[in-house]
Amino acid sequence: MARAMLTPDVKHGGDRKSEKAKSSLLAELETVSASYVSMARFVLRHDEALAQSVMSGAVTLNAAHEAAKADADAKESAAHPAPGHRARRRAAGASQSGQGRAAKN
Known about the structure:
The protein is mainly alpha-helical. The protein is 76% helix and 0% strand. The chain has one domain.
């Protein structure tokens, strides 16, 4: 998580002086798996408080990643309902209104 916080997003270019300042700490963190850094960045982007909980040791990175992923999936599905959802509702409404017309005729 510390490495993800130091370099939250991969960027190109940048300030060479700040890169040199970070290099000593990054050298210590080089042994961290790229997949853990990726998971930590995901948590950091989606829930900074949860990332702080990982840093303090209150929550494991795996648990935080799963929670952040579930939250992101829930937000995504709420923003974009399943395709065909409205079509099914319209079809159900059409069949009900068609039954009403048949009864009138």
